[in-house]
AraC family transcriptional regulator (Bacteroides acidifaciens), 125 residues
Amino acid sequence: MDEITKIETIDQYDQLFGLETLHPLVNVVEFAKSTRTVEYIRMNIGFYCLFLKEANCGDLRYGRKYYDYQEGTVVCMAPGQVTGVDKRNTTTPRTNSIGILFHPDLIRGTSLGQTIKNYTFSLMR
């Protein structure tokens, strides 16, 4: 069985990919600026993620299945979801994909914080 790494903070995520953390609750990530790459990881994230995949940068694993997200796909994840990346058998170049990460505390007490669980698009629950 694959080990699942718990990534609870945005700073932990940034450190994994060698990105700078400017704020503990929100970050815009540009993978072209990352100083580290990850060949394989399964992770349980503790925050919301919205990514725009600019290129085919490897298959993403969601639950028990792999998904081949095409160029230009928006991938959304909610806290508590398990996802992963597997680039072990590919020679994909570094991606120019970008994303926004935000901790649930950022929207706590706001109207978005109260209604975000009603959204059912993509991988958000």
